[in-house]
Amino acid sequence: MQQQATGYAWQFFRAGGVEQVAIRTGQDIANIASLDQKLWVALACPTRGIEFDPATLDLIDKDHDGRIRAPELIEACQWAVAQVRHPDVLTSGSDVLQLSNLDTEGASGAALYAEAQRILRLLGREGASTVTLADVRERLTMLNALAFNGDGLLNPVKLPENDARKALVQRIMDLYGSAVGVDGEPGMGRAQLDAFFADVRAIHAWHAQAGQHHCVLASQAQAVAAAQALTAIQAKVEDFFARCQLAAFDARALAPLSPSVEGYALLGAQQLSLASQAIADLPLAPVSADCVLPLAEGVNPAWADALHALRTDAVAPVLGGDVLVLTASQWAALKTQLAPCQAWLAAFPASPLGAMDAAEAQALLDGGEEAALQALIAHDTEEKSHGEQATALEKLIRLQRDLLRLLNNFVSFADFYNRGEAAAFQAGTLFLDGRSCDLTVDVADPGAHATLAGLAKVYLAYCECRRGTDKRHIVAAFTAGDVDYLMVGRNGVFYDRTGQDWDATITKIIENPTSIGQAFFSPYKKFLRMVEEQVAKRAAAKQETVTSGMDSTAGKLVDMAKPAAAAAPQAAARKTDVGTVAAIGVALGSISAVMVGIFGKFIELGPWIPVALLGIILAISGPSMLIAWLKLRQRSLGPILDASGWAINGRMNINLRLGGMLSQTAKRPASATLRMGDPYADGHKGRWATGGVLAVVLLLALCWRMQWLDAVLPTDWQHGAPAAIAQGSVANAADATGAGDTVRDQ
Fold it and tell me: What residues does 154 pair with on adjacent strands?
């Protein structure tokens, strides 16, 4: 682990509540190794799935594992600084390299300078003071297209006109494999060439030993044929003589060692062929105590051809042409005389070349192709140093252009927090639900990504994006605005960093609060949704009941055979029960009394009524707002990137202000005008009248309770009139009560 150096004064900046190192100058790049890695924002990032030139990342990724780690980035910075006179060159962001900026006093810088001049000379720009990335790429493309491109491989397609040599190179590649060159095409290397001619020499040496193993035969060809014929059937002949010798030892063994009648019966039940293994497993000839093997007549038909070859190629040349049967002693003598030839055949070198004859091996060794191909490989290898230097020059120009931006998307996230330029991990912008989301990240596996990304405490929407036959997955962070109409299946448009539009569909949502204001209204919205759901359920149940009742009534109407007298009890049953009406009235009265009591207690609060209202609101919305406040303070970018293959080292907070910039809602331009008249607007007259009446009633009740009317009403209204009215009301009530009693008495 690198420890922070005290000799270099780093500068830090604070953005979104996060402190990060500022990397702006060449000295910052030169001292990057001294910065404590605990202060780095990221310690690793993938080379794919981010908006950065993958060719630059591949040149930094030395172990080619598809990830850039802190040591690899430090090594790239140190290497680039060592090639130039002043490290500020690496902050230019340009892909044009001034040759005067190369440090020619060092060996590597001088080599790069020489290669740059060579490239300019080959491109017809000798004496130019600058070389561009396009120049180097053009030279590398030209070099890769040449037959001798420095990779040490021979491509038969690119070889000079020599059909026989091309065919030989292709043969070696087919038999011994090939390697992939810098041009991406297969080629033959020195290892394949050496292996091929080593096997050719071994086969040639084997053929040279043939004269030592004639096996008492006149020629090498006869010896080879005899040994091959003997080897092909030797195991079967040994089996035959072993059976015969056992039968000669004990006659009782003859029957068990010979095929049985039952065995032949089983064979007869099958569809037979001379190539059948069941027939080949039978003895070569009938087993007998005489131990004589016939070579022509009365032999197993599956082995007839092999026995004929044995008699023609081995028995006749060694024992004589008139031998038609073979005894055990003759068999032993035949094996002894042909044993040296068999041993020579068994020593044939096993190789991909197979059975190469002596003439072909001699021709390959005497033709001079080995030396010619070795010379071509050596000539190709001479260009290797130029190719390596050209690749190093390309790396330096790419680092001059991209290194500072990579550091500001790795060591710090300056590009993300400064909002001047999109960060490398931002895939584009998603437009959906009347807002734009700039924090979008490419996702390989949404299911696996969501497991870790949920810890970010951010409202995330996973989208499947399609453009023609292409498909990609992204995750978009909604960090501001309401989320009432965000749901799986909603469609939007995603614009990638190149400006191409994709059809986007939400496939998965991770819910989290986007603002405290949204959390304030969240309980009320949930309550209204619950009420709507319950009303819908009750309405559906009632509709089902009504439908069932209508079906039942329709069935009764069809049945007209019932007597009319039966309708009277039913009619009587349908009469309204007075007790039921009274019970309903009592219930409504109780509810009214409770409501009046609550309202009265509320009015009694007097000047504390606003405080009570505020308390009720806080009791409902307070918990939701508290939870939202806690989660909003914990919103972090880290888990989202960690799930995409990054190794985030710092706490990348997303505060409210930054969240408002990442998700922007639609706003009317300041210069635009709005016509207020809406011909399709809903009428609100009835609502306004009802609301006005309720407001007046509440205001009068409040004024009466607070005795605000005493100052404006006449004195007689304050004392006498109300009392008289009250007395009159009591008298009228008494009269009415008495009259009622009289009527009841009567």
Answer: 188
